[in-house]
Specification:
Blueprint (H helix, E strand, L loop, with lengths): L2 E6 L5 E7 L2 E5 L9 E5 L5 E6 L7 E5 L3 E5 L16 E6 L5
Antiparallel strand pairs: 1-2, 1-4, 3-8, 4-7, 5-6, 5-8
Amino acid sequence: MEMQITVKDKNDAVKAEAAGREQAVLAWKGEYEEGDKIIFSFPEKNRFYIIRVDDTMDEAFIYGAGDVLVYEVPFGEGKTSYNPKSLGLTSLTTTGGKR
């Protein structure tokens, strides 16, 4: 099974998606709108993954207890703590082994 990154709008319509066996990288030229979300779908539960929500943000080492992680794209006051260039390139990588 592949890992996948999907961007959906507030009505759950797919705006962009990418998938891969060992890594998924999503780069698109669209703009995020209020209510958008980034969905990371994992091939296996109970495994460690490395995600990067944007190329201006550091990678995060996470434990995927479930098969999806939903990241709500921040807007308004929620976005003020992020780099103004944030939210353009998204990636998901497997750590290569269960822990």
